[in-house]
Amino acid sequence: MKNLQFYHKALIIVDMINGFVREGNLHDYRIAKTIPRQLELIKEYQERQELILFIKDAHTKDSTEVARLGKHAIVGTGEEELIDEFKKYEQGDHTLSILKNSTSFMEAPRMREILMEATGLQEVDVVGCCTDICVFNGTMGMANYFDQHNRPVSIRVHQDAIATYNEENRKDYVDAAYLLMEQQGIQLVKKF
Asked: Contact at 8 Å (CB) between 45 and 8?
């Protein structure tokens, strides 16, 4: 990985792992509908040689989150692995993968280290799942981190590249997440 301070943009892909997209207790096949737009953004970032961060939920069977939300993304089951469509991008020159054991990628120690080192960041784009849990918690935490450190970084959440499981029954949560992100100054964007 090159010196992180030279990146101006970062693309954060949250939890596009088998355990949410393909299999397991918290998967929803409809999350896969976001893959084409996410791939467009990955390719744009690759062409510009900007930073790409793959966030991967990864738990042990004794994780407190597993006790609270149910068994998912257990290390060694394959659920914690990035979906096949993204695996070829995971080892790129401008790409890092970050494991997390909570519903907020900002609680992953490596994520905080990256943001401390990436002092040239001006823009962050966020995609992935789940809209009202991991995308919301991580993005809100990141906005607060940048505020705390007086860093004027624009954050965009791509609504056409995020989804949540059981979305038709979680509409109130998704709508609340959008409202709270907007209140925090996070931009909600769509390609079309």
From this structure: no
CATH superfamily of the 10-170+181-189 domain: Isochorismatase-like (3.40.50.850)
- Which sequence spans correspond to the domains of the chain? 10-170+181-189
What is the chain's pLDDT, residue by residue, as a tens digit (192 residues)? 568 999 999 999 999 999 899 988 888 899 999 999 999 999 999 999 999 999 999 887 888 887 787 778 777 898 899 999 999 999 888 999 999 999 999 999 999 999 999 999 999 999 999 999 999 999 999 999 999 999 999 999 999 999 998 888 899 999 999 999 999 999 999 987
- In DSSP notation, 166-185 reads TGGG-HHHHHHHHHHHHHTT
